[in-house]
Amino acid sequence: VAFVVCRSLEGLKTFSYLEELILDNNLLGNDLLLPRLPHLHTLTLNKNQISFQRNTCKILLDHLAEVVPALQYLSLLGNIACPNELVCKEKDEDDYQRYRYFVLHKLTNLKFLDTRKVTRREREEALIRGAFMKVVKPK
């Protein structure tokens, strides 16, 4: 397990056998670039600056799918990208579920997202409609 407080992850490339990485409470954003970590199965990015602005979160999720292929547990709690009614009163459970479908569409091997286990129904829904899920509700 590595505990890192940083804005740059350049030094991680020397830890190619890393399995768990906790990057909570940093200033990491959608431009986060991890080196290839083929054994990483747990990544927490709680309370950073990751958002769903434009296509940047899609790019981040595509990047994670490429560089951490063994990823099974991801947590994005406390980021703007993760709509949570405890953090933002304008968000509700439907917003959170749309976010889950979108992330699961991109990261198909996840077994846990945030604090919840991924269900078979969620995985099926993510395959069918995950690419079209938006986190923002129409006004």
UniProtKB/TrEMBL annotation:
Q: Which GO terms describe its biological process?
A: melanocyte differentiation
InterPro entries attached to this UniProt entry: LRMDA (IPR043313), LRR_dom_sf (IPR032675)
Please identify the protein, giving its name as recorded: LRMDA protein
Species in which this protein is naturally found: Acrocephalus arundinaceus
